[in-house]
Amino acid sequence: MSDNITVTRDGGIVTVVLDRPAKLNALTHAMWQALGDTMRALSADDSVRCVVLCGAGEKAFSPGNDIAEFATARSNKAQAIEYGRAMHETAAALEACPHPLVAQIHGICVGGGLEIAALCDLRICGTASRFGAPIKNLGLVMAYAEMAPLVRLVGPAVTLEILLEGRIIDAAEALAKGLVTRVVADDAVAAEALATAQRIAEGAPLVARWHKKFARRLADSRPLTEAERDECFDCFDTDDFREGYAAFLAKTKPAFKAR
């Protein structure tokens, strides 16, 4: 455990926990830094197959930043810039992670918690989950680096609806707006997130990383280069491809090695 960030591992599946249940996993400056450090370390570990992010307990993923820190750590622009640097470096670490990220969402997912969830590839929540970013009530804006993942996920219109109205929306509306991937019974969230991670981990890890890379690149309006188009065929020279089709023909389970 480090600054309320807990990491556990089961094979290739790593679970990263925002571990501050007494405060509903409200994020502190130290937690943002520790989460960024954790994600950078996991990104460099080629044995990781999938990362599950969740909040401790079943009351909240995270309600966002701890307001109690504002008086000492974010009371003016200079302090806010320093605090924001930690947030934005962590957001960049989440976005750059080559491994698939699954958000396991119980209860409240608001503000900074929503920003973290938006940076994940898949988001599994329960029927009682709630989402929003009512920061207008604090006189705060969502900075570019924080808003960009939300805009990519649901578009500028829905992002502005969330920010301008400041409503807290339920899981059904979040699903309809594209904020979440799947809604299950509250007592099934952890099991579904794990099952999702296991399905991901069973696939060829290099392929998962390529698919993440390609999806991010397609969000960029620049024309693809010939080298980028050529990269789509690199998979045919991997051991995992040879393992995959041989196992398919033999009707056995492939044992991928990320090579």
Explain this structure:
This protein is an alpha/beta fold and 259 residues long. It has 2 domains: 5-201, 2-enoyl-CoA Hydratase, Chain A, domain 1; 204-250, no CATH class. Helices cover 47% and strands 16% of the residues. It has helices at residues 29-43, 70-73, 77-96, 112-118, 144-165, 171-177, 189-202, 205-218, 226-231, 239-250, and strands at 5-10, 13-18, 50-55, 60-62, 101-105, 108-110, 122-126, 130-132, 169-170, 182-184. The protein has a 6-stranded mixed sheet with strand order 1-2-3-5-7-10, sandwiched between helices. α1 (29-43) links the parallel β2 (13-18) and β3 (50-55). It is globular, with a radius of gyration of 19 Å.
Q: What is this entry, summarized?
A:
With 259 residues, the protein is of the alpha/beta class. Helices cover 47% and strands 16% of the residues.
Write the layout of secondary structure elements.
Blueprint: E1 5-10, E2 13-18, H1 29-43, E3 50-55, E4 60-62, H2 70-73, H3 77-96, E5 101-105, E6 108-110, H4 112-118, E7 122-126, E8 130-132, H5 144-165, E9 169-170, H6 171-177, E10 182-184, H7 189-202, H8 205-218, H9 226-231, H10 239-250
Parallel strand pairs: 2-3, 3-5, 4-6, 5-7, 6-8, 7-10
Antiparallel strand pairs: 1-2, 8-9
Helix pairs in contact: 1-3, 4-5
What is the percent of helical residues? 40-55%
Q: Give the percentage of residues in beta strands.
A: 15-25%
Order of helices and strands: EEHEEHHEEHEEHEHEHHHH
Shape type: globular
- Helix count, DSSP H or I runs of 4 or more residues: 10
In CATH, what is the homologous superfamily of the largest domain? 2-enoyl-CoA Hydratase, Chain A, domain 1
Overall mean pLDDT: 95
> Which class of secondary structure composition applies to the elements?
alpha/beta
Multimeric organization? single chain
CATH topology of the largest domain: 2-enoyl-CoA Hydratase, Chain A, domain 1
CATH class category name of the largest domain: Alpha Beta
User: How many angstroms does the end-to-end distance come to?
Assistant: 32 Å
Query: Strand order within the widest sheet?
Result: 1-2-3-5-7-10
Do you know the CATH architecture of the largest domain? Alpha-Beta Complex
User: How many beta-strand segments?
Assistant: 10
